[in-house]
Amino acid sequence: MNQDEQDIRQLIESWLSATQAGDVTAVLSLMAEDAMFLSAGQQPMVGRDAFARGLSKVLSEHVIESTSEIAEIEVSGDLAYCRTKLTITITSKHGNLPMLRSGDTLSILRKGADGRWVLTRDANMLASAA
């Protein structure tokens, strides 16, 4: 496994850990300013600010725990894609039953001039796994 693949794997682990910890700032540091998120049946979420608003709202009422099984990473120069099987448990802070979502994701990453990989595009096919 080369250094780029190791760095991308670490980015994914950092994302999951920061989300579970409720650290929105840390999550935002892992994405490009113009990041775009695609989900079935919804308009694209464009930009760090939009993502921050959405994540902050969810985390104000819930805790998110995730696992990601990396199926594929392909690096070509300063661009890479990563395909994963993602499972998310969203637990209410108010005692409601947890929601379980699971599915495949496809993420595009870009390596900056500083050598850091950031997420630039993400598409997920998560569905209720109940």
Automatic annotation (TrEMBL):
All residue ranges annotated as the DUF4440 domain in the record: 8-119
Record protein name field: SgcJ/EcaC family oxidoreductase
Originating species: Massilia polaris
